[in-house]
Task: structure prediction
Amino acid sequence: MIADNYLPWNEIPEGYETRVIPAGTWAVFPCRGPLPKPLQDVNTRIWSEWLPSCREYKLAGNYNVEMYTIPEGNPEDYYSEIWIPVEKI
Result:
């Protein structure tokens, strides 16, 4: 699902839906550089290295959030994040 912030004063276009992402603890992984490679590399490391070796947290949901910025000028400055819901073990 592709999402944007919900603004209650804006009309929701036909065919769109709203979802509430529950509050919780998030592991946030920053990424910088022209997409998609840097984001793919971070995603691979999250699931193959960080999460399997993390002893303080476990996965807390069946979704993750990716945040993208709109780069101004140099695509090397492109910034994004991957957010993974976690909970203390």
Observations:
- DSSP finds one helix and four strands in the chain.
- The chain has a mean pLDDT of 89.
